[in-house]
Amino acid sequence: MKLPPLNPLRVFESASHTLSFTQTARELHVTTGAVSRQIRVLEEFLGARLFERGSGEVRLTPAGREYRDDLRGAFERIGMATAKALSRSRTAPLQVWCQMTFAMRWLLPRMAAFQSRHPERDVVLTTSLKQLESLSDAEVAICIGHGDWPGVVSRRLVDIELVPVCSPRLLPAGQSRLAPADLARFTLLQSAARPDYWGHWLAANGVGHIDPARGLTFENATLAYQAALQGMGVAMGQYALVEDDLKAGRLVAPFGDRLGIDSAFYLVYPERLEKDAHLCDFRDWVLEAAGRDPRALSRG
Length: 300
Known about the structure:
Largest sheet: 8 strands, mixed
Strand order of the largest sheet: 4-3-5-10-6-9-7-8
Mean pLDDT: 88
Number of helices: 9
CATH class of the largest domain: Alpha Beta
CATH topology of the largest domain: D-Maltodextrin-Binding Protein, domain 2
Helix content: 40-55%
Order of helices and strands: HHHEEHEHEEEEHEHEHEH
Number of strands: 10
Distance between the termini: 35 Å
C-alpha cells in the first residue's frame, strides 16, 4: 500500500473545506506559501491537479472533489481512533520509573499530595538501582543525567548538591562544625552506585590526604544514609535526599558547604505523550513539588 505524504494530506483536507489557502494557513499556523507548496507536493504525488487557482480564490477540480469525498471517511476514522486512544491514556495507570533512593527519600514522602490533588489518577511506580536505559517499559522516568537524552522531553527536576552528613551523636561534645580535613577521623560510608561523589567533594575542598574510596561500601545510597542515621560513619549526601533528615536533626552536616555538580535529577518522557492528560497532571505536580515552573519546557 502506497500512502501519500501525511503533512500535505492534512493541508489538503483543510483547504478542500475552506477553499481558501489563506484561511487554511491561519488554521494551521503556517504561511499561505507553505500551504500552496504542500498542495503541489500532493498533486505531484497523485499526478493530478486538485485545485484550480484563480485570482484570490481556489476551486476543487473534479479529481479534487472525488479525492476529498473518498478521504472524508478516513479522517473520521482517524479522529475516532485518536479520541479512543486519548481516552484510554487518561484512564490507564501512569507507568513511572524512578531510581530507588530518589523514590524512597524524595518522591514517596510527597506522593500523598499528588493523590489528594488527583484522586482519580492511578500510578504504577517501578524502582531500580540501575540507570534507566530506555522508556520501553515506562511512560515517564526520573533519573540522573544532563538532560541530553535524544528523542525525549526532559525537565530538570532536582539539582544535585553534595554534602557529607552524619548522626549528631558522632560529633565531639560541644562541637557542631568541623573542618573537611577532620573527616580523616571518621569512617566514610560509600555508595557503590555513586563511587565518584566522595572524590569530587574532597578534591573541591582541598582535602588530599584522605582516600576517597576507603570506609564501608553499600550497594546504594539508601543503605549508606541508613548507616549514617545509625551512627556508623559519614555518608556523602545528595542534599535534596537528606534535607528532611537535616531539618529534623536526625542528621547534621558539620564538614562544610554543599558542592553543586553538573548532573541533576530529570523528569523524562516521550514526545508522543506531550499532551497526555494523565502525564501532564503528574508532570505539573512533580515540577511544582520541586519548585520548578511547569511552563518552562526544555527538550533533550
